[in-house]
Design a protein that fits this description.
The protein has 10 helices and 10 strands. It is of the alpha/beta class and about 250 residues long. The chain has a 5-stranded parallel β-sheet, with helices on both faces. α3 runs antiparallel to α4 and α5 crosses α6. The longest helix is centred in the first third of the chain and has 28 residues.
Length: about 250
């Protein structure tokens, strides 16, 4: 009840601001559950594959109907009949596929070229909004190691579609505005804690909060010190930083 994720914000944005009835989503189970929780219908690549398999049966019927229609209008050439029937079935298929109001891209551990190909078909229409939960290229996976983040997926889709997304997660203040609507929050007495300067800390600074950077993630103390001497990077600097979050408990004691 007190946690707002970028996946939830993406779902709310698609429903309340874009006012889409159905979206195409690249994302994990968590993203899909957020869509379901706000009452949003969605199509995923996995769903699409199954639907297309079932639709192939319908296309077979459509081909038969198309040939019948072509013959009924006086075309005797069998090749022309098949061409018209094929075009008719493709039109029917496209009408079905394009009944979506937005594309949402989130973290998906099963991401593949097939997902990109599906997203390309939808995003070829410039009127279809392209929404991304965040653009973090990496995230910590433990033992000092990092893994590829949502940003890698977003960059792949953006490159293929030649479109840039609406980023609803940090540092977009949409997340903070949503929190203001749900809770009584005073930015001046709030503390934004995060490990990434260009998202977490910029978000906190832009929203008027105090900021704390923890060094257990992707940011090092050396990076903060180097940025502090650059006047053009002030918005990236936290109010304070600490080695680990548990340091706050020690301060309280």
């Amino acid at each position: 009840e007190e946690i707002l994720s970028s996946a939830y914000i993406a779902a709310v944005y698609a429903k309340d601001i874009v006012q889409a009835e159905k979206v195409f989503v690249i994302g994990s189970t968590g993203m899909k559950e957020e869509l379901e929780d706000v009452g949003m219908k969605y199509v995923s690549f996995e769903k699409l594959s199954m639907l297309l398999f079932k639709l192939s049966i319908v296309i077979g019927i459509a081909l038969s109907i198309g040939i019948g229609i072509a013959l009924s209008i006086g075309t005797s050439d069998d090749n022309q009949c098949k061409n018209r029937a094929f075009k008719l079935s493709i039109i029917l298929l496209c009408l079905y596929l394009y009944l979506i109001g937005a594309v949402i891209v989130a973290y998906d551990p099963k991401f593949s070229l097939h997902h990109i190909a599906a997203a390309m078909q939808y995003l070829s229409d410039p009127c279809i909004p392209y929404i991304a939960t965040n653009t973090d290229n990496t995230f910590p996976i433990g033992n000092g190691k990092i893994g590829p983040g949502t940003g890698c997926i977003v960059n792949a889709v953006s490159t293929a579609t030649e479109r840039q997304p609406i980023i609803v997660g940090k540092p977009n203040r949409l997340m903070f505005d949503t929190a203001l609507k749900r809770y009584s929050i005073n930015s001046k007495t709030s503390l934004m804690i995060g490990d990434r300067l260009n998202t977490d800390i910029v978000f906190g600074n832009d929203c008027g909060m105090q900021t704390l950077c923890v060094l257990t993630g992707v940011t090092s103390e050396k990076e903060i010190i180097e940025l502090s001497s650059n006047s053009s990077s002030l918005n990236l600097l936290p109010t304070c930083y600490t080695d680990k979050l548990s340091d706050l408990l020690e301060m309280e004691d």
